[in-house]
Amino acid sequence: MDPEESKREAAVAAADLARDGMTIGLGTGSTVAHLLPALAARNLRGLRCVATSRRTEEDARALGLSVEPFDALERLDLAIDGADQIAPDGWLIKGGGGAHLREKVVAAAADRFVVISDDRKVVEALTPPVPLELLAYGLPSTLARLREIGEVTLRDAPPSPDGGVIADLRADVEHPGRLAALLSGTVGVADHGLFAPELTSDVIIAGGGTLEHRRRRG
Ligand code: A5P
Q1: DSSP secondary structure letters along 97-128
Q2: Alpha-carbon distance 30 to 174, whole Å?
Q3: How far is the CA of 85 from the centre of ligand 1 (A)?
């Protein structure tokens, strides 16, 4: 099946979870590009959205969705986003589009974080690279610290909306929790693209004409 059609199916299923009056975090990427029209088409009343990138913000507004800066809401009812890799234990790699810092802030603020994907993103085990967002201040010293963990490449991309430098790390990701802790403890790393299973409430995967909806237990 056409991957775009699978992305659309997953996006439509996630849009169905929205209700009148909800506060909703909108992710970034080609899967979320299918979510925005699906959400707008539901014509829900009183939705308040925050966006994880300028692209999402502009596209959502163009469809008539109400998007506000993420500076007044303390929590979100729902957040919906894509992923680059989905491991069997629920660990994700995100940040292919460089928006992972804002995406993690939004996911952490959401009562329910829903990942939408076509089935090509489902992997047996995570593989590098892991996207990073680094503070521009003191960048050479941060890179030197990161080189003790793995090989870092600065991405040929504009700075993030928060002024961060986007990079990719090639390192052993067999134990994602260990690597995530190491990166979170590295001064100068604003955030990384490893998303722990606890962040995610639902994963909706479409492919081959089927829709799988995994819900986190407990
Ligand atoms: C953006 O930085 C990413 O985290 C995306 O959410 C992720 O790369 C999935 O993107 P696609 O939906 O385009 O595959």
Answers
A1: TS-HHHHHHHHHHEEEEEEEEEGGGB-SS--S
A2: 27
A3: 9
| Contact (CB, 8 A) for 89 and 61 | no
3 state SS of 93: strand
Nearest-angstrom CA–CA distance, 6 and 8: 5
Does the pLDDT at position 218 exceed 60?
no
Q: Is the pLDDT of residue 70 over 70?
A: yes
pTM attached to this predicted model: 0.97
Nearest residue (CA) to ligand 1, atom 7: 83
- Calculate helix-pair angle for 54-62, 32-41, nearest 10 degrees: 30
Is residue 1 scored above 90 in pLDDT? no
The CA 84 to ligand 1 mean position distance, Å, reads 6
Please confirm whether the linkage preceding 129 is cis (ω < 30° from 0). Answer: yes
Residue 26 Cα distances to 48, 58, 105, 144, angstroms: 10, 12, 11, 34
